[in-house]
Amino acid sequence: MLGRISAAHSAQPQGETAMMRSSFAAGLKTSMLAGALLAAALLGGAAVAPAQADSTTTKVALVPGGPHPYFAAWAQAGADAARDFHLGAADYKVPPAWNLAQQNDLISSLAAQGYNAFLIFPGDAVGSRPIVAELADGGVPAIALAGCLQDPSKALFCMGTDTGHSAYLGTQALIKAMGGHGRIVHFTGFLVDPNTRLRMDNVARAVAETAGAVTLVQTIADIDAPEPAQDKINAFLATQGGSVDGIVTTAWIPAVVAAEALRKIGAKRIHMIGIDHDPVVLAAIKDGYVDGTMLQNPYGQGYIGSYVMGRLADGCKVKADAPWASTAQTTHFIDSGTALVGPAEVDRYLDTMRAVTKALLADFQQKYLVCP
Fold first, then answer.
1. CATH number of the structural domain 163-295
2. Counting beta carbons within 10 angstroms of the beta carbon of residue 344, is it exposed (0 to 12), middle (13 to 18) or buried (19 or more)?
3. What does the CA dihedral 238, 243, 248, 254 come to, rounded to 10 degrees?
4. Residues whose CB falls within 8 Å of the CB of residue 345, separated by 6 or more in sequence, listed in order
5. Among 22-26, 99-103, 201-205, 353-357, where is mean pLDDT lowest?
6. Separation of alpha carbons 139 and 38, rounded Å
7. Binning pLDDT at 50, 70 and 90, where does residue 356 land?
8. Where are the domains of the chain?
């Protein structure tokens, strides 16, 4: 499995240095800052933490699959959680590249350094299970964050966006904007990302429900990095843009590149639903080039995940009979929230994300934990 994953990623830009080489560098830097700015803005109303004992022995590591702007909000989320919940640490640690072996090496190194709680975006839904099992067998709890492991696994649970449902709702919104008929293209992320297949399946499901009124012309995947996104999206629009009526994007960087491409073309005939809160996408919504974007909640994932680790150190246990949701990958899922933001809501999108985080945290202990 490790060999397959490494080979799959070998064509991808290796780490932040390679990503910055493209002409998309300035936009990517803005994207990386967007998560941090979002986290800072959320502080205006996110502190609704339940009281708890001191958990200074808890050292949480928040480990994504590789460098990506989506996860930038985890850094501030961890810092805020460490302060609010009296944790020893809640640190954001990024592998140098999207490579499962490198992520596993980083996790092992952090465990050796004394980190005793892990929030992990699985580098592979199946391939990441062994490292999580090693942690659990050593008494170190782990939660799958933003993407799920395939059951059975020793992760306590998975918390993230219901990515399949989000893609389904986004595609439905696109179809509505198109008047219920036409031809669409889907731009999405890495095929080794556990979420990508869910997104592809649910875009196809929404299209199938139109009984032929809408055609999915093509799905272009493995482009959640600047160079492949620019190359493939611009090439598609140059050769086939005139024959499509809509674009749905279900990964951050394709959303940014597609929004910029539509602005550059200048015509607003092609409808688009994006994903996430990159400033480029939000500006394109305001200016009428994009119809809307599906918000996710990375800050809430990191903040609440760190809170859970502190509560476990205080003696709480995860409820076996909690009101878990189910996905295609796991029967122990918590939806961290999603929402469609269009022109009418774009200036208030932070309020939407604050409300989702507050609501989830307010009764989290009652729903999901048993505490002494």
1. 3.40.50.2300
2. exposed
3. -10
4. 352
5. 22-26
6. 34
7. confident
8. 2-161+298-337, 163-295
